[in-house]
Amino acid sequence: MGDFNWNDLQAFLTMARAGRLTVAAQQLGVDHSTLSRRISALEAALGVPLFERRTVGFVLTPEGERLIGDAEAIETLALRMRATLDDGAASLTGTVRIGTPEGFGTYFLAPRIAGLTGAHPGLEIELVANPRSFSLTKREADLAVSMARPAQGRVYAKKLVDYALGLYAAPSYLARKHKIRKRADLGGLHWIGYVEDLMWTPELDYLPQISRDISVHLRVSNVITQMAALAGGAGIGVLPHFMARNESALVRVLPDEVRLTRSYWLVTHADTRDLARVERVTQFMQEQLREVGAKFWME
Fold this sequence. Notes:
By secondary structure, the protein is α/β, with parallel strands linked by helices. It has helices at residues 7-18, 21-28, 32-46, 62-87, 102-109, 114-119, 171-174, 207-210, 223-231, 241-244, 276-298; strands at residues 51-54, 57-60, 94-100, 123-129, 143-146, 155-169, 191-194, 216-220, 236-240, 251-253, 260-269. The strands form three sheets. Strands 3, 4, 5, 6, 9, 10 and 11 form a seven-stranded mixed β-sheet that branches. The longest helix has 26 residues, at 62-87. The termini are far apart.
């Protein structure tokens, strides 16, 4: 163990999470040959192979799998040591990555984020608003907003807010169809829904709740692009009210008959939830939710 370099554990964890040499090297800010040497040096120091080099990327060996837990424990200790120093500073510093669904991140959080970054200039915020789930265990985010409560993992989940959704279409599309007066009139319309194998959470499977007669004519992978297609007259679909209400090219359809409700959950990891910067971002989001009130989400 005389040649063991603690910094090489960071290289090991990044490679284990990324799975590909070029991706991991980019995340660490080094070239791929440097990263490869660091992995090889760690393997030599420990006396065991940690990865199998395959055409699809780097795959953990059984020895590598066993090392993951200890390496993450050291990573967590390093984060806590840094947090202790940060807590004693006059202002918050460091980076917080927030992973959110694209609608929440774009239409709620992004327009308000200046209140956080302006108050803490030493804090770097990374807002990742994508249609996907985020693994906090793999450090894909420091905190995440999810549409469902996680069923496993060393994470804490707290419901942020319930929000309502309804049917929307463009007047230009509705003018080409018969009057839609009741739920039975929804069959035979051009529906816009999600690409099934890219539906990252079952909470997005709205249409079976509305009618069994629905046939999807256009499938789109994310809700923002769905809204653009609806505004362009491509058909009828489901949108959250907090997104659709300010889109002048859309009207709500059957508001008294079709109303769906979903929830957003705030998820933090057990190892990092007590970091001062993570706590402050969590507090900020909760403050903003209280400020806008329930009407923002439900009407």
